[in-house]
Fold this protein.
Amino acid sequence: MNINTVNTDISMKRLAFEEAAEQQIESDITLPDYFPDIVRVIKCTLKANIVSVSSGGNRITADGNAIISVLYICESGKLHCFEQKIPVSKYVETPKAEECTCVASAKTQYVNCRVISQRRIDIRGSIGIDFKAYEKCDKSIVSSCENKNIQLRTKTANVSNLKDCVSRCFSMNETIEIGASQGTIGQIVRCNAIAVLDSTKLVAGKILIKGELKVKVVFLTDGECVLEKIENSMPISQIIEVATTESCSDFVTLSVPSVEVHAKTDSSGALRLIDVSAIIRADVNVYENEEIQYTTDAYSTEYETDFQRESVELKSIFEKFSDTYLCKGSVEISGSAVKSIEDIFCNELNYTVSLSGNEMLISGKANVSFLAVNSEDELQSFDRELDFQYKRATTLGESFSASCNVTPTGIDYILSAENKLDIRIEIEISGLIFDASKKQIISDISCDEAKKKKKRSAALTIYFAQQGEEIWEIARKYNTRVDLICTENNINSDCVEQNQKLYIPSV
């Protein structure tokens, strides 16, 4: 039997695959001849760069490198930094690799440094690589029917359908000139880069992304081996092709999976330039806001009916927000009195998103590293954690759902005389808050023409209805149409408003 249903597609983004892989890093480093002997290691760091993510067959592959950096003091008391780059390639297997948008991110799990001799260092560490694959899912649901013998119980809802989800990487390259008052570059100690989103604009078939790449480089000067810092901002402007309509809204996040810096000579032959090469990843979600009609129940007045019911999550954007949060905390520095802080940075943030009463909570820890000079003029390295909790009011209750991005964008400190460091970390927090609820929705209807229903002999049946009874349930019981009952009894609501006698027409 041809039922002639009209169906609507509901589109959503689903995490189809997620797996964490570990890459062990092992290196036995022998210093080159032009590096002096090691007397004391100040700090050893391990940084992972993901240069590319590819999918093919049943695999997702992440390629990049691990950069080992050892900051140490030589016999003369001067600082030196040795760096070694190790290629990294890791894959995971999933049957959905080619059908999905695949991303990977890496972070250092641990690194240990053991000095074997004045010229040999044994490095043992581990990098964690998180693989994720997202797929765009379309659910077809019954919204109406042209066959009058098919009765549908329908409701309406506002939804934000996922129109498109795209992940694109692009490279940025720029040369930075160090300040005239700073010495020439001897060795680069570390670099840090963050991408900050300023604005987005949807145009026909495209999204224009504007932002800023903030880079901080710490280096040792040539000769004196003094720690110096330079900060620079580079404008981000990128156009990405996406599917859009006039009623679409977007949510974009930027990240920096890879950044590398190299010193180079200026026109006079002095090492006063720094080449910056960064890979920026833009994750773009485009949503189309619309009102849909969906079916929760159905029957045929002619035949026995079968239907397929599915649990479907309906989501609509409740709020899009962007905020700046200051994480404040104090840490104690053990040992001798501290004279100065030479370098400080926030390694990473670990956080969770939850709902507590009428508030969204983003709770986590900020990992802070810093180099300090004590009263004996010794350079020491410290690692500390600061707790943070961001709150945002919401009225959604159990229907709350959120997608958030949390990025540290700056750090400042005040050193007290009591070896206490008061730290402030600027954190950019952006996200989408959804009003989400799961509904039992009919996705398919079929009738068995071999099982025809018996028709009632009476043209009208009298039924004594009770206040609050649903017209739908009465119509189903007597195998008639809802509109016929309403017309016959002048009813304009879904329920019986008082105890009354109803005339039930036959079909």
Notes: The two ends are 19 Å apart (CA to CA).
